[in-house]
Amino acid sequence: MDRRRFLASAAALPLVDPLARLATIARGDHVVVVGAGAFGGWTALSLLRAGFRVTLVDAWGAGNSRSSSGDETRVIRAGYNGQAVYIRMVARAAALWKENEVRWGRRVFFPIGCLWMCPGDDAFVRTSMAPIRASGLAIEEWTVAEAQRRFPHMGFAGVRSVFFEPAMGYLLARESCELVRESFVREGGDYVVAAARAGRITGGRLGSVALASGQQLEADRFVIACGPWMSQFFPDAIGRRIVATRQEVFYFGSPAGATAYEPGSTPVWVHLGDHITYGIPGNERRGMKVADDTAGPEVDPTSMDRLPDAARLADARVVLRDRFPALANAPLVESRVCQYEESSDGHYLVDRHPELANVWLAGGGSGHGFKMGPAIGEHVTSLVMGTGAVEPLFAWSRLRPRP
Predict the structure, then answer these.
(1) Which of 106, 87, 85, 88 is nearest to 97 (CA)?
(2) So what's the pLDDT on residue 3?
(3) CA 225 to CA 196: how far, in whole Å?
(4) Domains (ranges, CATH) in the chain?
(5) pLDDT at res. 216
(6) Residue 318, Cβ neighbours under 10 Å: how many?
């Protein structure tokens, strides 16, 4: 869709359901959301559109380089080890990404396809096929020969099975966070850039969050979605249930004039070997993105050294050589050191605080949460309003602290 059609379509969409907004405002509820990343930003926007008065707080701003929602791109895929709750959420999130693209008049979701390459056990994808199709999305199983014919510039040595999700692809990350923030402010939300911590607690309720300036930001309800800083915000309730882990991302340059490594000619790809490695082509002209999904060592997200590690770069080059032989000696053109907010079992935390009745927790993205942002925001809003139920897989009670 070109920009003119995007804008024309956007003009036809109401920003807020007026009746829902009036019904909620009548209750006088003010919600403070801490964290403007994928979970917090979308939650703040969803709450605002549901009629709440909302203040969104972030220490460094939406999509900043220290956040788990920074960098340029993220994979969106529906293969999920057969876990229907995630697959349904991907389908819902994909619809919401597209709906908000129309509102913004800007593309951030690029459905260039997601290619799964499995050298061994392919149950992670194979068990997902039925629930993917049940959710209204598509997935195809290809022979290795068919994959090689479609993508002759790729290498499939050692691959035994191949799957393709034609409606999946990648999202613009940092830009999406900023677009969500802009929408939130434009539609009437209050946005504050400040460090925050838990404030007054009385009678099993949080009364405020304390800003670094000394201001106490009071509200009726709170959503804490501050990613890898959640354990610092609530040391007792979160503690080592969610930790920050070091993750490294590398961008490799393609030969001058080469178009085979651009979106459309190359899909998003996921290699399911001893661990998961993935890649995204193009990346706003930054080259081929290669990253290992394995959780790295624990770090302090505020102060950690963000220089890339030579050993991790060498590992990325091995995968690049095997899957894109012509890029075996490609120059490294950019790199990022970021972090996951890794929960103790890899699943999200989306639940009420175990001791504070007016506080909800949204975190534990564990490297796979960004794409779910719009659906998570919608889900948290239903919990805050009392119209939704906690997903057992996301419940606080199932999380155990790490040793």
Answers:
(1) 106
(2) 39
(3) 12
(4) 3-398 (3.30.9.10)
(5) 95
(6) 12
The C-alpha atoms of residue 146 and residue 150 are separated, in whole angstroms, by: 6
pLDDT value, residue 372? 98
Structure tokens belonging to residue 54: 């909302």
pLDDT at position 28: 52
What is the predicted pLDDT for the residue at 301?
94
Q: What is the pTM of this model?
A: 0.92
Residues 204 and 356: beta-carbon distance below 8 Å:
yes
CA distance 356 to 159: 50
pLDDT under 70: residue ranges of the chain: 1-28
What's the pLDDT at 8? 41
- C-alpha dist (Å) from residue 366 to 241, 251, 371: 12, 21, 12
